[in-house]
Batch of 2 targets.
Target 1
Amino acid sequence: MKKRHLRGDILLIGGLLLAAAIAFACVFLLRGDGDSVRVTVDGELYGVYALSQDVTVDIRTADGEANNRLVIRDGKAQVETATCPDGICAAHYPIFRDGESIVCLPNRVVITVVTAQSGDAPDVIA
Ligand SMILES: [Zn+2]
């Protein structure tokens, strides 16, 4: 009797884990693709670039010292090269889903995927 009980518990826990995994997958997959990336340097808007257009942007900070090269290719944005010492931003996988971002802390550069629907209309191309 006790053994049977245990098996029931395992099935129940397994079922709950499966349900959680499916819910998580749905939330992740339903997250739409963004249509552009917004770049800020030190909190200031640097530019908005459409993901539909292949482009290379050298993001320079105000003092002209730091430089992150943003490359948009095949609808994905990625930091190709960066002057920051840690290189975390350049190692980041390409982003394209709404809300994803690449942050370069040393250079204070933030690249975030946005969509027109999320209120960040990309009608200003800097
Ligand atoms: Zn960096």
Target 2
Amino acid sequence: MLINTNIRQASTLPGSFYRDKAIFDEVKEKIFAASWLYVADVSVVKNPGDVYPFALLPGVLDEPLVLVRDRDGMLRCLSNVCTHRGKVIVEEASSVGTMLRCGYHGRCFRLDGSFKSMPEFGQSEDFPTAADNLHQVPMREWMGMIFVSLKPAFDFEEAIQPIRERVGFLPTDTLLFEPEGTQDYFVNANWALYCDNFLEGFHIPFVHPALNEALDFKQYDYELFRYCNLQIGIADEGQPHFDLPPGQPDFGKKIYAWYFWLFPNLMLNFYPWGLSLNIIEPLSHERTKVRFRTYRFENQPFNRSENQLEKTELEDEAVVESVQRGIQSRFYQQGRFSPTMEKGVHHFHGLVAEFFG
Ligand code: FES
Ligand SMILES: [Fe+2]
């Protein structure tokens, strides 16, 4: 799979990338296992001894992991699979004392994942070794959120640095989770089609009439970084916008929203009222779960109906599902990019090709 780096000459990913189950199986390992994935908010493991088990990308990577906060307050992500015969150790979120105990034959681990004890192993030779410890998985915290990667192919801090620089002036440490604006959507389409659609504002006048009213489409802009990119929505007359401090890169512009995308599947949409996080989780090569999570700044009211997020989402789902049907066609191979409006899609396709090797 090759994507020409010159957008004026490049063609899009082939239709088979979205259609083919065998390619999707490669995507799991080459893209999802190699990237940083959002797991949960730090609040799920607030206190010392808190444990939170989860499967990373259920049904796709399906890796059993557990977040553990030790007695000193240190947070880790460990393999949740017992090193004896492989039972899942922590079955539900709870608070533990000073260790994790496997419920099958009683093997115990300290909260840093190291082997502690095991009944009936007194006669075993060469035991325990490092292989008896729980594997520790790379984990990062950012804006109250937890990200993990099974075998990271890139540095998390480097990837998010452009986002930090842009929104660093916002009180992101005061973001409050808002259940009102939080919902899962299920889309009958390949996950990458959902991302392609997000990555261009080209379709806004055609697909989102209400959003188009709020934005000054002529000033819609794109910026590309190494592992993330940004779309800048400029507010039309009379529409809400950020109050920017001098020195902020967009100072002087009326920013309606910054739409960030972090490779491969996370969208961070910053509005004057807060953050709308969209996590695009493949369920199979043709079905995708889209998780919308809303966070608002302290003292900023969130009004679900005013924000049109749901209306826009349903409009997006309809076109993405239509593309999913369209690319099954015998006559569709691949397309070309608009050099002005599809820079973000081209960036994404280039990264996909790079990770595919
Ligand atoms: S599988 Fe965990 S103690 Fe045997
Ligand atoms: Fe859209």
